[in-house]
Amino acid sequence: MNTPQVTPWADPVPPTQSTLWRLMSDEGLSPYSWSNGPHDVYSAHSHSYDKVIYVVQGTITFGLPELGRELTLKAGDRLDLPAGTVHNATVGAQGVVCLEAHK
Questions:
Q1: DSSP character for 69?
Q2: Mean pLDDT over each residue of the chain, to the nearest integer
Q3: Cα-based distances in Å from 95 to 35, 54, 103
Q4: pTM value?
Q5: Sign for the pseudo-dihedral over CA of 92, 62, 103, 76
Q6: 65 φ, ψ (degrees, to nearest 5)
Q7: In degrees rounded to 5, what are phi and psi of residue 50?
């Protein structure tokens, strides 16, 4: 089983949505945007496809109950989530805007 991978944004200045969109497009991905309000919660679930998520603004914490881990992402951070990975999510106090694409 592949494990989820977080790639932190290296620059102290967060990227713009257009920068992240271009990064994803250059990788052959077809991103779309979604957002949630503060403290929104997604219960545990999985997907039949690999998912790539970049945080544009705000924060979100993904729980990985089967791995006993939590991953908190902030602006610019990328999550590669393999198909079949059970995960939940809790949005941070400022809400969150993300770009997502399926592989």
A1: E
A2: 96
A3: 7, 14, 26
A4: 0.95
A5: positive
A6: -60, -35
A7: -75, 140
